[in-house]
């Protein structure tokens, strides 16, 4: 098939790809977006599982750059469901006439840097070849599905569905369902389907600390308040740590009386939102073990009060640190008061095999199931990069470079891969995704604008990457997140070397660093003559 040439090629048509396309088009560049999906949406195109919902409140789970759209586009509830987010992204793509630059049902197969011509050569699933001077990957943090290796899985005669590849319109009513996993996705699925399945068996790999979301219909007066204060709201988001729209606490947990701690925890439990509960109550829950245990005790107590069956309550109560991605829910623990909902603690009774009719555990019990739902998460952050061949200078692939752990400069660039930019790549900020995407897209756009002006290639320096990774390590050293075997450090994938893939310094500090780099003549980047 004929080769097609562009100034820039963007891989991914979710939040990141949409905004990056708009910005590069405004620079006057020829841009093509490709996506394996059938339409825009990214993660929200694929994750159609029951109960799928953003855990960021609706008023900031959107783009900030269109003030008129912020004030007029409807959001009926405090949290946007999957269909709402997908409709919103389609709305933005249509409003700005972006789909004419997008090609769907097109999967990236390989990308190779041509050192003679200083271009990227890209091969895709359709058989086409593209060339581009700039390659921007907007692959998403949570995209590559993680399938568990279970003995006998091929024997099972029922249905198996991963939450990230959910069949559209699939009806669970009256089925005997089993859910493996109870992270953010599992919590949402269990909460949604418990009321309509015949039976629900929850195979819990690790009990979770979850707090109420606080979801519900939006009062028109609240919407009016938000509309009138959007400038201040976004200023606060950009100048905060986690960028979730609330003021983070500056009070250490042990600096107040037990009664005051209880009051603050209860107040934030009632307000809802996992990030608010972890970062809006006290400033040291994420790194002070004593403070963390106070939050743990409060949530454990709530689980004990909500779940009436003592055996179920015991299994649902975590005993480790509250140091995974903070979760929120719409009534998760309450579902275990239903007679049709049971829980299997896989630490006590692991899965031994799958049979023709269900799942067998080590206690000899065979759980008969019509459908098994895999809420087993993703090979996060770098998983989507290492499954394709991206080859930079001297023939070295990204997978080879990341053999001992994924690293980058600023979560955006990798030494040895000129004019390639990642959005939410490894070592990017651990913050609310849309504001992080906007921050990185604007930085990448400025970098490409600089390269266009100087007619030079942009490539991260080895020392700059080393210093950035070291800073990430230093900041994370005291974080209790480092103690948890979670996807945040890649520990959810058997055989994968755990590594630090986030900058825990907050969005405000991250934005300040990017501003310094832009104003400091692109410190940390080699600017190489681009003449072919």
From TrEMBL:
What's the domain of life for this entry?
Answer: Eukaryota
Classification via Gene3D superfamilies: FAD/NAD(P)-binding domain
Look up the coiled coil feature and give its residue ranges.
Answer: none
Q: Which Pfam families does the protein's record reference?
A: Pyr_redox_3 (PF13738)
Q: Identify a single GO molecular function assigned to this protein.
A: oxidoreductase activity
| Flavoprotein keyword on record | yes
Task: Report if keyword NADP is assigned.
Answer: yes
Q: Which InterPro entries match?
A: FAD-binding_Monooxygenases (IPR050775), FAD/NAD-bd_sf (IPR036188)
| Keywords for this protein | FAD, Flavoprotein, NADP, Oxidoreductase
Q: What is this protein called?
A: FAD/NAD(P)-binding domain-containing protein
